[in-house]
């Protein structure tokens, strides 16, 4: 039965063909469709497909899908929902989430149809790649330390919001260290941090990290029995102007774990803690790190510290300790001299000078510094720009003590020394004044000292970094500080 049906079909086609020839039915394109019924008279299209139902077959319709784009102007001639494919990925622009193929989704791309641009920081209609002043602050990008952030006065809080978070890592000495990092954040609000469930800070706790720009780094060293966050007024202000600041707790020398017997160890380990903190930060700035792209490891870092942290700072800056002096102290019955010397020699046989300098450091700031009982003539080995601030009412590292440090450093370097009037030791670590107000009664308030310190530190550092117009800035206009 099936074979008979097929035969009849073939015979019918042959008869129709003969009749059409005999009857003179026109078929100009020989596609088997009479011209009177053919939607493409001169183009063979036996299927008579007409996608847009306009009466003109797709084979001869220059706009087969009826979307208004014809010929080479339509990358998708049979899809009325698409006409273009800007990045040539085979996905039409209307359904492509990244139509220019630059890796930035359309809804986040200021120029979704231009693969050479994706951002317009100042909203002037010129993409950042072509714009010579991305943030529109009047400083051209090649001179601007932060080309995506509008510059503000160094004499007040800066343009960045400040986040902070504590981290733990194992240092080169094998000890687990806690380090607090303050960093720029793009968050528009946040919850103030409470450090160690003890002290309310101003920075936003665990805010998101903004690494859209590269930032200079400062590592801070706290004082004897202090904490990593004791001088937040300075760390917070520096970050508001574009720095990243990290500060480790010096184990066995904090409020929670101070061990006096560890003093000889601390003399040698404190500087290592600071170097380890920078190394950790560098590691975390690599790909997939917490601070990826936030800093340039080759740019080094600045160091700062208060009191015992001032010793740490000066040692890292290049101050050395002569083992002969340690031996002399040992011979006088000062056991710590023996212990420091012997610990040094255990690690560095036949090296008579204790050298803990980090050549990556480009600036040092010492606040009411202590000489650790070991820094004397070796202070003259400091060779980097140094800022020293102290108070004339300090009874812990008094003015004579700090003045001797300055004298021992000598005049061979860029040294700036300021004495803040009517100021003691703890204004540089305000929790000391808060906890023991009797130490600070009748003296300048914490905020006054913070304002003087912040301005001096920022101007000092910005000059060294070559920030625009920094050389013309006055380091302080306060009547309460004397520069010596």
Task: Please give a structural write-up.
The protein is of the alpha/beta class. The chain has a domain at 161-319 and 357-483: Rossmann fold (3-Layer(aba) Sandwich). Helix content is 25%, strand content 15%. A hairpin with a 3-residue loop joins strand 3 (192-195) and strand 4 (199-205). Helix 2 (232-240) packs across helix 9 (446-465). The longest helix is centred in the N-terminal third of the chain and has 22 residues, at 2-23. It is elongated.
Quickly list its features.
484 residues; alpha/beta; Rossmann fold; 11-stranded mixed sheet; two-stranded antiparallel ribbon; 9 helices; 13 strands; 25% helix; elongated
How far apart are the termini?
Answer: 118 Å
- Would you tell me the structural class of the helices and strands? alpha/beta
Tally of DSSP β-strands: 13
Helix content: 10-25%
The main sheet comes to: 11 strands, mixed
Could you give a quick summary of the protein structure above?
With about 475 residues, the protein is of the alpha/beta class. It has a domain at about 160-320 and about 355-484: Rossmann fold.
């Amino acid at each position: 039965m099936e074979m008979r049906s097929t035969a009849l079909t073939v015979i019918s086609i042959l008869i129709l063909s003969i009749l059409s020839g005999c009857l003179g039915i026109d078929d100009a394109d020989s596609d088997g469709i009479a011209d009177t019924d053919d939607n493409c008279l001169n183009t063979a299209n036996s299927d008579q497909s007409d996608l847009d139902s306009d009466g003109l077959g797709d084979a001869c319709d220059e706009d087969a899908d009826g979307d208004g784009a014809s010929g080479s102007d339509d990358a998708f001639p049979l899809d009325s929902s698409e006409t273009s494919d800007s990045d040539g990925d085979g996905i039409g622009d209307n359904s492509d989430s990244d139509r220019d193929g630059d890796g930035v989704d359309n809804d986040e791309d200021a120029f979704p149809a231009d693969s050479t641009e994706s951002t317009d920081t100042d909203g002037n209609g010129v993409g950042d790649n072509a714009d010579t002043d991305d943030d529109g602050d009047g400083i051209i990008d090649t001179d601007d330390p932060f080309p995506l952030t509008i510059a503000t006065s160094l004499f007040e809080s800066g343009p960045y919001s400040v986040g902070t978070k504590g981290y733990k890592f194992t240092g080169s000495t094998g000890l687990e260290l806690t380090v607090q990092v303050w960093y720029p954040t793009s968050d528009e609000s946040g919850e103030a941090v409470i450090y160690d469930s003890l002290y309310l800070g101003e920075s936003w706790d665990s805010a998101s990290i903004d690494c859209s720009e590269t930032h200079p780094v400062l590592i801070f060293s706290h004082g004897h029995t202090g904490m990593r966050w004791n001088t937040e007024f300075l760390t917070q202000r520096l970050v508001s102007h574009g720095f990243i600041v990290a500060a480790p707790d010096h184990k066995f020398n904090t409020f929670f774990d101070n061990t006096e017997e560890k003093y000889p160890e601390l003399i040698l380990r404190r500087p290592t803690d600071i170097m380890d903190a920078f190394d950790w930060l560098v590691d975390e700035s690599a790909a997939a790190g917490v601070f990826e792209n936030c800093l340039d490891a080759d740019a080094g870092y600045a160091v700062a510290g208060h009191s015992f942290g001032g010793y740490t700072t000066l040692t890292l800056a290049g101050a050395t300790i002569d083992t002969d002096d340690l031996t002399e102290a040992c011979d006088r019955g000062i056991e710590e001299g023996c212990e420091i010397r012997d610990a040094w020699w255990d690690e560095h046989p036949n090296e008579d000078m204790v050298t803990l300098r980090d050549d990556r450091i480009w600036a040092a700031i010492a606040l009411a510094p202590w000489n650790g009982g070991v820094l004397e003539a070796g202070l003259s080995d400091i060779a980097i720009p140094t800022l020293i601030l102290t108070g004339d009412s300090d009874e812990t590292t008094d003015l004579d003590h700090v003045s001797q440090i300055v004298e021992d450093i000598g005049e061979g370097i860029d040294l700036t020394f300021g004495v803040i009037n009517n100021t003691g030791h703890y204004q540089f670590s305000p929790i000391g004044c808060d906890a023991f107000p009797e130490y600070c009664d009748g003296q300048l308030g914490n905020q006054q000292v913070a304002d003087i310190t912040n301005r001096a530190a920022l101007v000092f550092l910005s000059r060294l970094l070559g920030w625009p117009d920094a050389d013309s800035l006055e380091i302080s206009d306060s009547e309460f500080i004397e520069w010596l």
